[in-house]
Amino acid sequence: METTAMKERVAQERNAVKVVGLDRGELVFVGVDVHKRTHHVAVLSSQRGLLSYWVQPAKPELLIEKLSPFRKHVAQVVYEAGPTGYGLVRALRSARIKADVIAPGSIPQPPVAQGKSDRLDCRKLAEYACKGMLKAVCVPDEEEEADRQVVRLRWRLVDKCRQIKQQIKGLLLQHGIAEPEGLENWTKRAVVELRGLPLRPELRFSLDVMLDEMEHAQGQVARVTEKLKELEASERHSADVAVLRSAPGVWLITAMTFKTELVAPERFENPREVSLMQGLSPQVYESGETRREGRLMSSGNRYLRTILVEAAWRWVQHDPGAARKYRQLVANTGSAKKAIVGMARKLGIILWRMLTRGEKYRGFVAEKPARAG
Question: For 286, which DSSP code?
Fold first, then answer.
């Protein structure tokens, strides 16, 4: 009869890493398909192709143990960004193993649909890493990630408030109940009137529960906002946030979102990279002398994109130079939405420069149109 120790030894032998006979200077690339309970791992040689594949429990220390015998040959370990976060990459780097997290949108897609499996996914990651075709994301440290979590928590709570309000209006519409005056802006008086509407007991109960849920979510938003004010005043954020808030229209939420989402702003080499990160770079179609800009690219940080567009509306209201540039863009594009996205892109680049240089806002000077002739 097999003992527990014997079963564990058999399992270890089954999952043993068979990477032997590596030549001096030979490099290997490791692709990991990360799941909640398992890691699917492929080891690929830059000279001989796939060397090994195995499945293991989702334990970073176990992966480090298996890679350690040929650590000096490991050029890069890569896995796709996802819900499992950055724990694995931090553990690998702490063990002095080069590792990166890959942006899902940067992974090349084959022109023809192919089969999909965990084994294929980790092998493709290793192959693309070997060819230098992957773009790594910037991994925040644990403190930066915790601060970012507070900001994102507020975003989720605000979205929850918005959804509940839509559900309340949907209930009124479904049952033919007239909206109180002021409900468009959700004034206090309108909410009080909702509480006092004469309804059937079941509808009254449903509406009251939804109103209670909305008020609770609003209270949570206020609670998180107070926490953000504490973070703003902390030593690690106060100087940078003061710089960002010197720009017209940039308030607490904009500044803290920008600061926590744009980790290590000095890593960007030019404004185009910043625009791509912020999700405000348009798709460009160019042929010969014809150049046309289309929709915004789907990649980028949605939090930055949203907050910069909102801040751009306030910016053009409070800065005369920005207002002139906005009107010029409206005249050129014929669309206020396109114009404000263009202004959001400019604002994001300005804030990036302010943050990297530690300089407060100096005002926006719109470019002068070229003279005819």
Answer: E
| 74-80/28-34 β-pairing | parallel
Per DSSP bridges, beta strands 290-296 and 282-287 are: antiparallel
The per-residue pLDDT for range 326-368, each reduced to its tens digit, is 999 999 999 999 999 999 999 999 999 999 999 999 988 765 5
Tokens of 355: 């943050």
Q: Hey, is 150 helix, strand or coil? A: helix
Three-state DSSP string of 244-292: HCCCCCCCHHHHHHHHHHCCCHHHCCCHHHHHHHCCCCEEEEEECCEEE
Q: Is 128 helix (H, G, I), strand (E, B) or coil?
A: helix
Q: Residue 41, SS3?
A: strand
DSSP per residue, 14-62:
HT------PPTT--EEEEEEE-SSEEEEEEEETTTEEEEEEEEES-HHH
Identify the burial level of 341 via C-beta atoms within 10 angstroms of its C-beta, where 0-12 means exposed, 13-18 middle and 19 or more buried: buried
Where exactly are the structural domains of the chain?
26-130, 142-236, 255-284+297-357
Q: What is the pLDDT of residues 205-218, one digit of tens each?
A: 999 999 999 999 99
Q: CA 75, 79, 85: angle at the middle one, nearest 5?
A: 125
Write down the pLDDT at residue 129.
Answer: 96
What is residue 108's predicted lDDT score, i.e. its pLDDT? 86
Q: Which amino acid is at 166?
A: Q
CATH superfamily of 26-130: ATPase, nucleotide binding domain (3.30.420.40)
Report the pLDDT averaged over residues 164-182.
Answer: 96
In sign, the C-alpha dihedral spanning 144, 128, 30, 122 is: positive
Q: Which residues pair with 293 in a beta bridge?
A: 284
As a whole number, mean pLDDT of residues 137-165 equals 96
| Cα–Cα distance, 356 to 358 (Å, whole number) | 6
Q: Which pLDDT score, from 0 to 100, does residue 352 have?
A: 97
Assign 281 a pLDDT band (cuts: 50, 70, 90): confident
pLDDT in tens, 285-304: 554 555 455 566 556 899 99
How far is the C-alpha of 273 from the C-alpha of 92, rounded, in Å?
27
